[in-house]
Structures are given as structure tokens and as C-alpha cells.
Amino acid sequence: MEWKLFDKPHSYTAAWYATLPLADHLNQQGHALRIYVAAAYAAWYVRFRGATSVGDFGAGNGGLLDSIKGLLPAPVRMWGYDLLPDNVRDAQANGRPVTLCNFLTEKVEWPQLLLLTEVVEHLVDPVAFLRSVPSGTYVIATVPNYENDMQHFEHHLWAWDMGGFMDLFKRSGIDIEKLAVSDKINLIAGKRAA
């Protein structure tokens, strides 16, 4: 199932994000499993699919990038983009390669492996964004799996169960390769079709 939660976005602009405090997901219990699972899948794509670059769009303070780095036997090029200035300051203070960037409207460098953890539920048009991903790019995305039209965060524009999330990927031209479900998240990994 897919639920459009709001007709008019209220959390889309960079100005709105600039007002939010640091989102230290790496140290929040509710996000620990998401980060661990996404990092494990990302490391797998680097090691066994040959992805030579990893980009985390909506990187927060870069904790996921650090987690991935810790799982790899050799370095790989990694960077992140985030819209929260406090997130970027914290990431850079800790030596994590995160840049302040609205990746929805600004020019970005696309990686071979794109991470979108807890991002697509914030997008006004998730299908359009996913279709903009260059063909051949691997994509790992997570969304909360406990949200619906009756229960959701006030700043999420969309909610999906696993079936709806899979349908979103299919409509967006991403071939699904891997799935993971926990009590908090749905994860899909796939490749943008040619």
C-alpha cells in the first residue's frame, strides 16, 4: 500500500531543513538497526558488485558512511549530501565527507551506489527523483514500515508498506535485487534500469 499523507509539502525546502537541530541518527537507538543493515548491504555492493563510489543523499552527520567504511577491507570513494547545516558541521568536524547541498535542486555528483535511507518519504515526487537516477546506478533505500495514513511523522509526505515500496521502485525503473524487513524499516536494494 502507498499513502500520500499531505497534498502540500511543508518540509521540502532547504530553508525548512535549516531550522532543524542536529539529527544524530548514529547514536539513536531507533536508527541503529537501519544504519547497520544499510551499511552491510552497501558493503556487499562494494565488495561483490564492484561499486567504486558511494553517495549518501540525506547523509545526516555521516554516520552511515563511517559504518560502511568500517566494513570494507580497502577504502572506497564516499561522500554525502545533507540539507541540515548542523548535520554538515558535525560531519565535517568528525572528518566525514558530507556537504551542504539540496540534492533535489542542485547539481550533484552521482555515485555508483546511491544510499537513500529515510529520504524518499520526504520527497514531493519520489518517482520523478528515482527516475532521475542515472541508469546502471545501484540504489539502497529504507523507509519506516510502521507508518500509514493514520499514523506517521508530521514531516513525512508518503508512507508505504513493503508491497507499496516495491511498487514505487518498479514504477521508477529500478530492478529490485534485495529486500530486508525489520520491526522498524523496509529496505530495498536494486539497480536503475537502462
Kindly list the characteristics that best describe this protein:
7-stranded mixed beta sheet; Rossmann fold; two-stranded antiparallel sheet; globular; alpha/beta; 6 helices; 194 residues
Largest sheet: 7 strands, mixed
What order do the strands of the largest sheet run in, or round the barrel if closed? 4-3-2-5-6-9-8
Query: Which structural class best describes the helix and strand composition?
Result: alpha/beta
Distance between the termini: 27 Å
Note the overall shape. Answer: globular
Task: Please tell me the overall pLDDT.
Answer: 90
Low-confidence stretches: none
Describe the structure.
There is one protein chain. The chain is of the alpha/beta class and 194 residues long. It is built from 6 helices and 9 strands; from the N terminus they run E-H-H-E-H-E-H-E-E-H-E-E-H-E-E. It has helices spanning 14-18, 29-49, 63-69, 85-93, 126-132, 162-171; strands at 2-4, 53-57, 77-82, 98-100, 113-117, 138-144, 158-160, 174-181, 185-192. The protein has a 7-stranded mixed β-sheet with strand order 4-3-2-5-6-9-8, sandwiched between helices. Strand 3 (77-82), helix 4 and strand 4 (98-100) form a beta-alpha-beta unit. The longest helix is centred in the first third of the chain and has 21 residues, at 29-49.
